[in-house]
Amino acid sequence: MLKRNFRRFGLWLFLASLLSLPVLALAQERTGSGGGQGRQAAPTFLQFLMRPKFLTMLIIAALVLILLLSRKMNNRLKVLILLVSTFLYGVSANLGIKFFSGFSMHPSPVCTVTKSILYGFGRPMMVFLAVILFLTLIGPKLFCGWVCPVGAIQELISMLADKLKIKRHKPNFRLTQTIRILIFMAFIFLSWTAVIHTVSNGRVVPLSLYDYINAFHGYEWSWAAALIDNLINFLPLILTIIFAFFTYRPFCYFVCPVGLLTNVVEQIALFRVVKKKDDCTDCQACVIKSPCPAVAEIVKDSVLRPDCFSCTRCTGSCSRGLLRFGLK
Fold first, then answer.
1. Contact in structure between 309 and 151 (CB atoms under 8 Å)
2. What is the pTM of this model?
3. Between the CA of residue 241 and those of 116, 124, 131, 140, 199, what are the distances in Å?
4. 198: burial class by Cβ within 10 Å (0-12, 13-18, 19+)?
5. Domain span including residue 242
6. Residues 238-293: pLDDT tens digits?
7. Structural domains of the chain, count
8. Residues 240, 112: contact at Cβ < 8 Å?
9. Inside any domain, residue 129
10. Domain-located, residue 58
């Protein structure tokens, strides 16, 4: 019991520090409000938040949560929502339509985390990070599972792999988490020591390791003159799509620093998959039918769970309806 309470206290403390982002943003706005006359004021935190991109993210997440809690989510709705997220936040900005230009993933979720560490919290970074954390705190990875275009395309491929009866490898969470942490530690070391860097105006500027493995870049449909630049831009997403046929959400589990962050926050999410303990026969049907490693720990009611993307596989596989989305 003491160990459990200590872990929960640590998680709450960590989350409290992250949710201070809006306060920092508002403080920046006040200190920067006395800028030079004649210069156009930068959008405030709330003005950024009210942009169509972030508003639609909140609306999609709210719709998903309602469908999950009411048990109305089905595969047709799931595919539709995932396709909408893929289109809005991955494809639409490339169409040259003015309305969709604001839906571009700049900064991408990966850059939101890594560039904030390297260069400090800009207001767009703060807003995006606050939205991601808020949605993760409310529901089971509502952003990663349903809004993120890289996550959405992997989930769609996972469903297609099920239809094609492709045998897939279930990720071992200890392995994937270790790799994800090692990549993040390598990013910190290589960037802070400026091993990876560029030179701007005679100054050495550190670069991010994630710039070379960021699947979100694949949604930027621009062709560079150098072949290596095109490979860096498109190859991570292409590999993610290919590997997603054979293992569940490879980019999310093995690479994404946002996943590393949200895995901490989701431990204290308000709504998540819960089990009715008394009537469970321990048949393991939910564990067998689910592609993710989280279900086994959910069934055991573990304090720390692997990433759960609220994919509905486990809740739909229990013939007695003992797994459901609800208050923890």
1. yes
2. 0.86
3. 27, 28, 26, 23, 34
4. exposed
5. 45-50+67-270
6. 999 999 999 999 999 999 999 999 999 998 899 999 888 777 777 888 888 888 89
7. 1
8. no
9. yes
10. no
